[in-house]
Amino acid sequence: MATYNGERYLPEQLESIAQQTLLPDELVVCDDQSSDSTRAVVEDFGQTAPFPVYFHENPQRLHFADNFLEAAARCRGDYVAFCDQDDVWLPEKLERVGAAFDRTGAALVAHQALSFTEGSDREERFQFAHHGILLPDDLFPWHFFFGFACTFRRDLLDVSPSALRPFDVIDPRRRLAHDRWITFLATTRGIVVVLPDELARYRQHDTNESGWMRSGRSAGAAYSAARNRFAYNLAKHLSAARRFIEILEEQVAKQGNADRSDLDRLLDRWRELDEAYRARLAIAEEDTRAGRLKRWGEAMKRGAYRPSVAERPLPMSARELALAFIARPGQRGLAKSMLSQAGYPE
């Protein structure tokens, strides 16, 4: 569990863990320098909890992704479940997830959930698009499963140091979010299982740390982003893809002559994605509409929007054709400036 000023909802989440039909071996809490009574809430719970509770306070703020990964690294069991401080686990979550690991030998198990807004009695089913047993080839390269629904084999953390993960494509000031990172690692080590069971209640409120379900930008802001961030968005994804390729190449080299067909296929997919991003970035870096239209045609011929690298090929190719006509000139400079301000590597 990663905590930060969580006193308001933390007791309900802790109680839901204590009510599991299959209790965890331990609860490891990493706190990101809370200024409220989070520590006291956890320590009070630990006095009566039916399992050991360990509390660690980070000497400096890590923010939510690195805080989750720090907590996971401190766990001693074979499996780790990410736990948000403000959700509620349903009683059979760990039992059903554990049974799925026993049944399938998966690297990661995710599940469906119920989403509710603070102050409202309405609940909605939050459902992942994929379900069942998924091979790495079944997952589009950028797919991931939200952390609150994920349990994974702890040895995934040994695949590659988390400090080497790419910068995040949504918030480039920090490295890739913990759930995207763990999903990627899981694809390198076996299958993913998505259960149809709703095993947690995801609470939405104004102070969610990750904010992934908050409302989108206005029409004006979206148009401004389209005008200014065409190359920037592609460059972020290209940089992340390159880092994933480096990690996979290292894993392939470590396996030597051992059976590595799954890793090779995964590496091929990321190399295809890298090639596609290069072709698409070439569109944005042209300053004239005629030049962009030419590059767009070349990208189409090179398969930059084929299904293996574009989840929705036709809408994506049409969207980038439109961007070619409305994006400001000087995209290369704009992207470089934005990436530099965010601290993103060139």
TrEMBL record:
Source species, domain of life: Bacteria
Species in which this protein is naturally found: Actinomycetospora rhizophila
Record's protein name: Glycosyltransferase family 2 protein
Pfam short name (any one): Glycos_transf_2
UniProt-listed CDD domains: GT_2_like_d (cd04196)
Stored SUPFAM superfamilies: Nucleotide-diphospho-sugar transferases
Occurrences of domain Glycosyltransferase 2-like (ranges): 1-157
